[in-house]
Amino acid sequence: MAMKTTFTPGHYRRRVAGVLARRLVQRLWDAVR
Amino acid sequence: MDTADDALPNFSLVNASTVDDVLKARAENTDSKLVGGGTDLVVNIRRGIVAPPVLIDVTHVKELRAIKADTSSLEIGASVTLAELAEDPDVLRHYPVVGGGRRVDRRARPTATWARSAATSASTRAASITIRATGGAARSTTASRPPARSATSRPRAAACASRPSRAISRRALLTLGAEIDIAGPAGRRTLPARQALHRLARQDQPVTETLGDGKYFRSRAGEFVTAVRAGNTPALRSGYDKIRIRRSIEYPVCGVARRCDATATRSADLRVAFTGTNPRPVLLDGTDRLCGGALDARVFKGLDDLVRDQSWR
């Protein structure tokens, strides 16, 4: 059965990676305070 | 054509109980491959992509199944499953970024991902510890006898081939400054995790002392991963998260570790690792410049810039 996937452009993935990094840093910061 | 139910070709199975057994078996069978569960290897054998005449079962090697986690260090044997890791109370207590993946393939092996490139390597490099599953495919086979179809049924293969957590620990361990223990014909050595991976995969490169197998991982001929180790940094807090982009097979996964100063008002240490954007996991350079102050717009802007500049390398 064919796998239904699409290629996600790199610039979009990089933006998402940045969002993840910010979100995690914020979460860890909030956990300490 | 769906080949999931095709019978496996004949192969011999060697059961190893020590690392020395593995090395000896590999030396005697240069075309062999290591098998822990078969999530990559057995599927590829069934599809005719590879046909090793000898498989070496490493699932009973005690040294490869050890988990040691305390306030000073972490050690994960190469055959430890992600489920074992995620359920280990000491790992969860001291290294949440390692054990904190929410979705866990119960058979997946975290350290395996460090060496998976060797699975398709030249025959002189016998095998890798690429196996992420303890599924019945390998165990159900006996020497030179293809297993019954029921032993390698499609549901099991499909389950073993699932990907949800295969890459959790590479990012997580990068943030912890991990080292990789390797065993091979020339003895044992340790490689910093950050240096273990190439920037790009090259399938046509020969094995060399400096570039390893030429496909991501800097292993030499006959070597395999025995464990991954990391030290603990007091007060370092860590987390892991990912975003699955709908219908994409490549998606960003991120691990972050952060340590505050004694007053909890300033960052003293910040480490960010991710993938889904590059051929290999990335540990961001330059995050030290974002420390020393509160978490403000300057830090977020700096983080964005670092991700933007380094997520394509």
Give the N-terminus to C-terminus distance of chain A in angstroms.
Answer: 50 Å
Largest sheet of chain B: 5 strands, antiparallel
Low-confidence stretches of chain B: 101-108, 110-168
What quaternary form is this? heterodimer
Number of strands of chain A: 0
Counting DSSP H or I runs of 4 or more residues, the number of helices of chain B is 9
Helix content of chain B: 10-25%
How large is the share of residues in beta strands of chain B? 15-25%
Topology of chain B as a string of helices (H) and strands (E): EHEHEEEHHHHHHEEEEEEEEEH
Which class of secondary structure composition applies to the elements of chain B? alpha+beta
Label the structural class of chain A: mainly alpha
Q: Please tell me the overall pLDDT of chain A.
A: 74
Shape of chain A: rod-shaped
Radius of gyration of chain A: 15 Å
Model regions low in confidence, pLDDT < 50 over at least 5 residues of chain A: none
Gap between N and C termini of chain B: 37 Å
Structure commentary:
The complex is a heterodimer of chains A (33) and B (313). With 33 residues, chain A is an all-alpha fold. Chain A has one helix and no strands. Chain A has one helix at residues 10-32. Chain B is an alpha+beta fold and 313 residues long. A five-stranded antiparallel beta sheet of chain B has the order 4-5-10-6-7. A four-stranded antiparallel beta sheet of chain B has the order 11-12-13-14. A three-stranded parallel beta sheet of chain B has the order 1-3-2, with helices on one face. In chain B, a hairpin with a 6-residue loop joins β12 (253-260) and β13. The radius of gyration of chain B is 20 Å and the shape is elongated. The A-B interface holds A 1, 3-8, 10, 12-14, 16-29, 31-33 and B 2, 237-243, 245, 247-256, 258, 260, 264, 267, 270, 272, 274, 276-277, 284, 295, 299-300, 303-304, 307-308, 311-312.
